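Data card: per-record layout.
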Amino acid sequence: MNRYIALIFSLLLVFFQGVALGSTVLEDKVFEHRFDNGLKLLVVERHDTPVVSAYITIGVGSVHETSETRGVAHLLEHMLFKGTKTLGTTDYTKEKPLLEEIERVGSQLDALRLQNGADQAEVAALEKQLSELQAEHKQYVVKDVFSNLYSENGGVGYNAFTSKDLTTYLISLPSNKLELWALIESDRMKNPVLREFYTERDVIREERRRSYDTNPARKHYESLVTNAFKVHPYRNPIIGWHSDIANLSPQKTRGFLEKYYAPVNTVIALVGDIRAADAVALVDRYFGDIAPGTPAPRVSAVEPVQKGEKRILEVFDAEPRLAIAWHKPTMPDKDDYAFDLIDQILGSGRTSRLYRSLVEEQKLATSVSVYGAPGSRYPNLFVIEGIPRHPHTVEELESAIYAELDKLKQELVEEEELTKVRNRLLTDQLRQLRSNSGLARLLTSYQSLAGDWRYVANYAEEIDKLSAENLKQVANRYLTKSNRTVVVLQREDQTL
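The structure for this 496-residue chain is written out next.
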């Protein structure tokens, strides 16, 4: 280990009270327990303040959907905020038959809409009936029940997110309220109710129109990912396509939920003012009796090797944008670590090569960014995006990007620059570890994606093994013309 990394370690061991990236230090701090139903629990005790961050990560995302269920993971993220048989309702006994009637009429309406030459009068009658049932149902709905309960008990940061690979629910709250968290979240896993299903489905369809179809940045990104992948389900948007959302049913959604949102696919991290033994007892008491569920399967589709450049023109009423993506491996492949460093060299902040060259010196771009996408469980993409500065063109910007990449492929990165980006990578990650929430997120994410949270503990050592020659080899291996997808977004009058 070089002296710069060693110095960072010694400082951070003090700064983070022992929870740094060194594998032995972090392994000493993380307590892990697996319950009989497959649920994995990770605990880190930090008793400096009386708070705990609680993360529940289910190793299921949009990559696990089929052509019949695209968009269901994102829909479920919305639906699981709606409550349970005991929370979110004024009287579930009276509500239940009404929910069943709503589902019956809604399913009938969906089936009719799919028919060619459907009787529009019949469609209108069913729409009216569904609307009346939904209006009647409102009397039983208690809005925002989870967030209100948490807020009333000192909880902060209550949220959820769905990615290609994962679904996560998170909250930070006083440590003496942790039993409330266990009660709420176990009830959500045991007794979820798909309340306001058709209303929420319409909300997501509108979200798709407003935030994706009319947003140039998202439209551009979606086109890039969809065209870069031919076979792998990473090509599909998390929110789903319009027809996907419209055809999601309560039956399909419930089937996906009951099959995969279960202990065998779940990792819980509790970081903060709690004893590990107490955490095990608490989680066992509330989650231990839940049926294991079905392990989320590995995706069998394998993206074929790309053997020629793809070029896509997306016509859109917005300023021009450029995105270039190259296929690359994912963690824990050695080359994926190399791309973390290449990302830093090319695109991290104002001192990065692309920013200095394209934005500051040549003034070809107003912005440039570098990132990995769209997921981390399977081989993914290394992406460079840029917006040309008028009067410069997309073509000029693209040529300048390739010129910078050629330097990376032909010249060794100087040791001073390599050390700087290594240190910045480690500092960024350690900054996340400083907070209870950041550490809980890293632990659950890597446990689910890499199969072992120790990926984060060993990260610094793996990064330190990489040399300038390794980065040069990786750049030449992957950043090739035949392996890239180029998507240009611009107005129709700019394509002439």
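Known properties of this structure: DSSP finds 20 helices and eleven strands in the chain. The mean pLDDT is 93.

See the next section for split statistics.
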